[in-house]
Amino acid sequence: MEQVFKDGNGRELPMISLAGDKYVIDLEHEQLFSVANPRKYIGLNNLDLASDSDSFECFFDLKSRAITAISPYIMHVPDDVVMLRIPMDYKLDPVWYRRQFHWDDKIPQQDQPITKELQAEVIPLRKTYVARLALENIMKAFDKRHRVTISMRHPRRHGR
To answer: Is residue 49 domain-resident?
Structure first.
């Protein structure tokens, strides 16, 4: 039987799966906390806003099961790190969101349904900008060692 977590008003808090780990969504405290270890949490204010502005993004280490940072000087793409794309707060817990902004009577619940099985999108790093960043850093290091310039831009076509 799955453990149930409730807020101060007795309302059951929704959950989300982050790379296979269950987290409780606690928007009142702006965090996701681990069902397995409630002292382990992810602060939503520490996450980056995705370019689509409709989700949060972070790097997640599959070994330590924690958020991690990627160095701007990365030279290889780690196999045990992925990017997580987490829905925005109004999708994580639409009931809390409507109540917080006193929109209960303005936005019908059917317009913001609660998703029972929320899952963060797990994106391999090779499908993100990190792979290109690592390649660019390798090429810069090669350039410095051999005093040559390698460009990743496409050469101009002659005659145009």
So the answer is: yes
Closest CA to 92 of 114, 60, 107: 114
Non-local CB neighbours of 28 within 8 Å, separated by 6+ positions: 7, 8, 96
pTM: 0.77
Give the separation between CA 105 and CA 101, rounded to whole angstroms: 11
The parent domain of residue 138 ranges over 15-153
DSSP state letter for 89: H
The pLDDT tens digits of the residues spanning 140-152 come to 888 777 665 555 5
Q: Which residues of 14-42 are buried (b: 16+ CB within 10 A; e: fewer)?
A: bbbebeebebbbbbeeebbbbeeeeeebb
